[in-house]
Each structure stands twice: as C-alpha cells, then as structure tokens.
Amino acid sequence: MAQKWSIQVQWTETHDCYGWCDEKGKRIALGTHDPHVFFHELAHATHARLNGQLKGGPHEDQEVVAEFTACVLTHLYGLGDRTGNAWQYIKSYARDPLVAIAKALDTVGKVLELLAQLA
Q: Quick check: helix, strand or coil at residue 111?
C-alpha cells in the first residue's frame, strides 16, 4: 500500500515513540517491527491524503483515527486483537474516549475505504 503511494518507509531508532508519519503523509519512520504500528502510521498517511496534510504533532482527532484504523487493520489481517491496547492509547489522548471515537468514525471509514482501494 505504501509503495503504491510512494510513501518512504524507513527503520530508525526512536526513543520517545514507536514510529511517526510526516504531516504530508509522504514519509513513515518505524522503530519497531510491530505491524500494528505500521498500520497506525499508514492510517496517518492516508488521513493526510484525505485532508491535504495533518496538523503537526499528536492531536486527539488524528491519533484516534490512526489508532482505531490500525486496530481494524490488525484484526482484518489476522494479526491479533489489539482492542485493549487501542483503548488505552485512545484514552491517553482523549478526555472522553467514547465521544472521541464517535467523532472519528466517519473519518476512520473514509481512511479504510481509501486503503481498500489500494489493496
């Protein structure tokens, strides 16, 4: 998927996070081999394509979209159940995780739809 959009994916040692995606969704850096983290960053890159670009740094709405999308992709690809981890991650960014997820669902659907077109 990343290759089809010419997203540069690279391994890097990260000290404060497992990965990141630039604001334009053109570059992903991973500090782990965990596919869930790749899906999270790919979701950020896809979200950037939908919006033109992301806001710099972590923002509640962007993190909820990326983590929820990654959770769905991890499950769809048969790589385990990450719902508990996803809930904890979302909870760390959102004052009210249920409200944040409800607000993000439309965007999550659009991100998944765009990714499905690439698959």
A: helix
